[in-house]
User: Which sequence fits this backbone?
């Protein structure tokens, strides 16, 4: 990603949202984007996903410029991302219509197991919990075998306990099927627990303020000294005090 | 409370609670009969008179004939309107510019009562079925058009983005995202519109044709103040209207379509 800027036109006024973002992500890397709310994290994700085009600058993936959405990079949304008119199996199979029936069934079974939704194949999302819906969304995304997964505050609407469990699940899934993951969050702990590198964005217009490498191997001990150090480091980089 | 729990609750209502509305109707009928028998010089019949009139209609074989005639017109008028208005409304709603162009026109036509079209219907189609069908068509077209337009507007952006993300072709997108996303709202809109169609058919039959339930009512009055037949006609219209509504409601309960009513 090179010199990406984004200016929105709102009510005739131009609002700069992103300012000269440069970021290089390697294959199978887990990146977390953090920053104050409304800073343009989601905009950046939508640009990388091809849902928006940058005002200037370019985004290239494996040497190929991003033009529009593509099943090779799937965006997972905060909530309501699963189709309520399809069952769990139907949702996972959504992107698989080009495959033969047998292959499709096989993939569905595989991903149902990966996100631990066995027994819910014929259930509609309205009967699933929030965490299950998000696992379903991740399964649907992974089923089309994408190179990159973009997650836009995927656990933001969940309660804190479920959120913690979901982080563990996501890491487990990521270790089973390595992909490049770019994960937007406003939760510092989430970022330090998950990411290989944390990208800190400034308030609007967003610039990259810092990039912090988290050098703790998984599974991470969230009470270890190194973890707390990194966490404090990140908090101070965002400009938050140590106490509430 | 989820929809399922609500359903269970309403099912477990005790028998006496369920019989209450029926008892209330019976009480009203009894009162009506008493009132009429106290004033025998009234033109209005009592419930017994209405039942006798219904029996008379059945004996002459007019009841099924008129019901079928009315339903035939409603079916055609409604179906033609649905076939044209729904795809058009979905298209207009999808393309913003299209909507900006069409909306003023739609808003002007919408508040015109279908009955105002009666002279034009007769001018274009003469007296007969096509006129009545045209009036029902006009009455259904604009509500269905607006329903389809707003149904497209109300599709959450997330569904559209997911559809684009998974690389669907336009046809696939329409069939697998757009259509399932709008169906619940279309069903609600159709239910309301079918009610309108049933209102319009009565008026249309009073003017444009010589069969059907609307014709029955106006004919009974013109041919010697047979108010028992008038009220019998009204009862039949009410009953069939109720059945049509129940039929449409049962569509809402189909699992595949029910997703948007179940809270989340």
Assistant:
């Amino acid at each position: 990603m090179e010199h990406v800027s984004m200016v929105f036109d709102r009510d005739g006024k131009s609002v700069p949202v992103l300012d000269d973002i440069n970021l290089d992500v390697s294959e199978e890397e887990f990146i977390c984007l953090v920053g104050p709310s409304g800073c343009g994290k989601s905009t950046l994700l939508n640009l990388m996903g091809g849902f928006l085009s940058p005002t200037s600058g370019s985004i290239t993936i494996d040497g190929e410029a991003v033009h529009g959405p593509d099943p090779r990079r799937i965006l997972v949304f905060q909530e309501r991302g699963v189709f309520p008119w399809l069952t769990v199996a139907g949702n996972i199979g959504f992107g698989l219509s080009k495959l033969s029936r047998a292959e499709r069934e096989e993939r569905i079974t595989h991903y149902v197991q990966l996100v631990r939704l066995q027994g819910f194949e014929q259930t509609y999302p309205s009967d699933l919990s929030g965490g299950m819906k998000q696992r379903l969304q991740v399964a649907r995304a992974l089923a089309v075998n994408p190179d990159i997964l973009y997650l836009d505050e995927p656990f933001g609407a969940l309660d804190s306990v479920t959120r913690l469990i979901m982080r563990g699940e996501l890491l487990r899934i990521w270790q089973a099927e390595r992909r490049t993951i770019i994960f937007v969050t406003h939760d510092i702990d989430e970022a330090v627990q998950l990411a290989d590198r944390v990208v800190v964005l400034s308030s609007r217009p967003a610039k990259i303020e810092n990039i912090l490498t988290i050098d703790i191997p998984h599974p991470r001990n969230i009470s270890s000294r190194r973890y707390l150090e990194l966490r404090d480091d990140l908090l101070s980089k965002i400009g938050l005090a140590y106490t509430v | 409370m989820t929809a399922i729990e609500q359903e269970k609750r309403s099912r477990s209502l005790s028998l006496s609670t369920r019989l209450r509305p029926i008892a209330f109707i019976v009480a009203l009928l009894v009162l009506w009969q008493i009132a009429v028998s106290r004033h025998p010089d009234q033109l209005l019949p009592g419930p017994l008179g209405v039942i006798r009139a219904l029996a008379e209609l059945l004996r002459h074989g007019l009841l099924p004939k008129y019901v079928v005639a009315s339903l035939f017109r409603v079916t055609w008028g409604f179906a033609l309107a649905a076939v044209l208005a729904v795809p058009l409304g979905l298209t207009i709603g999808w393309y913003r510019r299209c909507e900006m162009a069409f909306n003023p026109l739609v808003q002007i036509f919408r508040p015109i009562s279908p009955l105002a079209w009666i002279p034009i219907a007769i001018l274009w189609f003469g007296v007969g079925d096509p006129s009545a069908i045209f009036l029902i068509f006009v009455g259904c077209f604009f509500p269905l058009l607006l329903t389809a337009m707003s149904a497209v507007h109300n599709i959450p952006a997330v569904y559209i983005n997911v559809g684009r993300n998974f690389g669907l072709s336009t046809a696939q997108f329409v069939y697998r995202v757009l259509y399932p996303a709008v169906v619940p709202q279309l069903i609600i809109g159709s239910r309301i519109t079918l009610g309108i169609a049933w209102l319009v058919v009565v008026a249309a039959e009073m003017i444009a044709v010589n069969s059907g339930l609307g014709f029955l009512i106006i004919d009974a009055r013109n041919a010697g103040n047979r108010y028992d037949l008038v009220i019998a006609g009204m009862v039949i219209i009410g009953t069939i209207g109720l059945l049509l509504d129940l039929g449409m409601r049962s569509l809402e309960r189909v699992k595949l379509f029910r997703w948007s009513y179940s809270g989340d």
Q: What stands out?
A: Chain B is about 80% helix and 0% strand.
